[in-house]
């Protein structure tokens, strides 16, 4: 008994070494998302918490980016709700991203459940609207997309316990329809939304005993993408740069094996499956640009850190590289991948969930541009070309509405690529990829993505490469 007591004393008195990017946000932090809430060109952070009926811990927390990847907690909101998966999107007709969350009300003696939208008013979240789900059952996930192709963000919810999903349509002014519900034959896992068919409408993907794809107006049977394997998690991204959205889905087997399936989108609602098997646990896949190429990589979490998988092309990935992180006795973790220090490379936010205070319950590791992750933000160095003068770039007008003219000068001839990304680091379009002579050049961007869809108002990142070398990022603001 004495030896146990001494060991406990040693643990309690041992100093904890916190990372430079360790943060303490309010307790029960469960989900995280990032967006540019104040439209200053830098991603801020929203944290969702688990808040029970009658409890007073915050349910949403906002951290403001000081433009260099350091954050300050500036606002909290408290209401009853389990924020397993919050998101931000432009819900109404202004330029500011709003926050979408779950809310429960037990004052009637029964659980009344809502979608709560906090409307962003010039960077402030003072007003919200609750939209009733008209269903007292437990909802396990939430996501969003433009399902009816009206350029407005709609919302989809899913219930694992009660085997159904539903959609709420946006009228364009931040008001939503009554929910439309659809039954499932199995308990769903996660949901994902993307324009799989390239027809302008986002589709809904539901993972579980099958992978099903529902397409608007949702009155036809779903496309069965997978029928032989259970998947608990699903995410979408363009893995092979062919402008078709591919699918990543995974499951963890109790025998200690993780299976990840990549469904390569071949067009015409056909997919080719690729498989990766690991003899250890890896968590949910989160895509992002982790090194200096143009291919989407991804990370997977683990209780002791995360694994990074680098895309080699042809739907193949490197063996994972493990990045360890300190555990503070948390009950669970969640992550988000996004560029926070504005250097063009995606960083990793990790939340640690516990009902008690931890030494640090949020940690940010910053991408140095070569696929390594460090504790401090990584600044953009002034670019030079082989000892010559700097690459010169500007655009006018900025902000712009219909189109903007981009002027640039290169001191050396070579292959020049100009690509545009949204604030979350997601690819939008490539407006130039060709050999150019040294000197001044000019071109325009019409505010449309690679599928010729008009982009939403907001801040976009113009990424410049010369001879495959990433040189600089330039902000474009569309209103």
Features:
single chain; 479 residues; mainly beta; Methylamine Dehydrogenase, Chain H; Immunoglobulin-like; 2 domains; 5-stranded antiparallel sheet; 1 helix; globular; disordered N terminus
Can you characterise this structure?
The protein has 479 residues and is mainly beta. The chain folds into two domains: 21-374, Methylamine Dehydrogenase, Chain H, CATH 2.130.10; 393-478, Macroglobulin (MG2) domain (Immunoglobulin-like, Sandwich). It is built from one helix and 39 strands. Strands 1, 29, 30, 31 and 32 form a five-stranded antiparallel β-sheet that branches. Strands 2, 3, 4, 5 and 6 form a five-stranded antiparallel β-sheet that branches. Strands 7-8-9-10 form a four-stranded antiparallel β-sheet, with no helix packed on it. A hairpin with a 2-residue loop joins strand 38 and strand 39. The radius of gyration is 23 Å and the shape is globular. The N and C termini lie far apart (68 Å). The model is unreliable at 1-19 and 382-389 (pLDDT under 50).
């Amino acid at each position: 008994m004495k030896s146990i007591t001494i060991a406990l004393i040693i643990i309690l008195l041992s100093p904890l070494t916190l990372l430079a990017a360790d943060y303490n946000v309010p307790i029960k932090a469960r989900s995280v998302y990032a967006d540019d809430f104040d439209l200053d060109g830098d991603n801020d952070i929203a944290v969702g918490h688990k808040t029970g009926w009658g409890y007073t811990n915050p349910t949403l927390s906002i951290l403001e980016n000081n433009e260099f990847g350091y954050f300050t907690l500036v606002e909290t909101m408290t209401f009853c709700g389990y924020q397993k998966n919050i998101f931000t999107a432009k819900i109404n007709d202004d330029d500011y991203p709003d926050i979408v969350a779950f809310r429960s009300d037990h004052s009637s003696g029964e659980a009344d459940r809502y979608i709560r939208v906090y409307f962003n008013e010039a960077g402030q979240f003072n007003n919200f609207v609750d939209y009733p789900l008209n269903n007292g059952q437990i909802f396990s996930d939430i996501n969003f997309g433009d399902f009816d192709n009206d350029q407005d963000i709609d919302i989809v919810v899913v219930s694992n316990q009660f085997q159904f999903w539903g959609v709420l349509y946006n009228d364009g002014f931040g008001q939503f329809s009554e929910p439309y519900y659809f039954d499932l034959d199995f308990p769903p896992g996660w949901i994902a939304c993307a324009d799989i068919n390239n027809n302008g409408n986002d589709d809904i993907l539901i993972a579980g005993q099958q992978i099903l794809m529902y397409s608007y107006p949702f009155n036809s049977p779903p496309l069965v993408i997978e029928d032989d394997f259970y998947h608990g998690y699903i995410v979408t991204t363009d893995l092979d740069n062919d402008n078709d959205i591919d699918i990543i889905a995974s499951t963890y087997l109790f025998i200690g094996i993780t299976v990840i399936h990549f469904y390569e989108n071949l067009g015409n609602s056909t997919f080719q499956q690729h498989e990766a098997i690991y003899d250890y646990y890896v968590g949910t896949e989160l895509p992002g640009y982790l090194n200096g190429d143009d291919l989407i990589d991804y990370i997977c979490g683990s209780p002791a850190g995360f694994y990074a998988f680098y895309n080699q092309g042809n739907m193949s990935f490197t063996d994972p590289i493990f990045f360890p992180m300190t555990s503070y006795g948390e009950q669970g973790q969640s992550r988000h991948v996004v560029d926070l220090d504005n250097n063009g490379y995606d960083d990793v936010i990790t939340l640690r969930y516990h009902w008690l205070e931890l030494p640090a319950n949020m940690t940010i590791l910053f991408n140095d541009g070569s696929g390594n992750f460090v504790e401090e933000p990584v600044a953009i160095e002034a670019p030079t070309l082989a000892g010559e003068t700097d690459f010169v770039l500007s655009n006018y007008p900025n902000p712009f509405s219909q189109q903007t003219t981009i002027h640039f000068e290169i001191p050396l001839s070579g292959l020049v690529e100009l690509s545009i990304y949204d604030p979350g680091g997601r690819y939008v379009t490539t407006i130039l990829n060709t050999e150019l002579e040294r000197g001044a050049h000019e071109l325009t961007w019409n505010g449309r993505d690679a599928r010729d869809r008009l982009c939403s108002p907001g801040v976009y990142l113009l990424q410049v490469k010369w001879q495959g070398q990433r040189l600089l990022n330039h902000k474009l603001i569309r209103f």
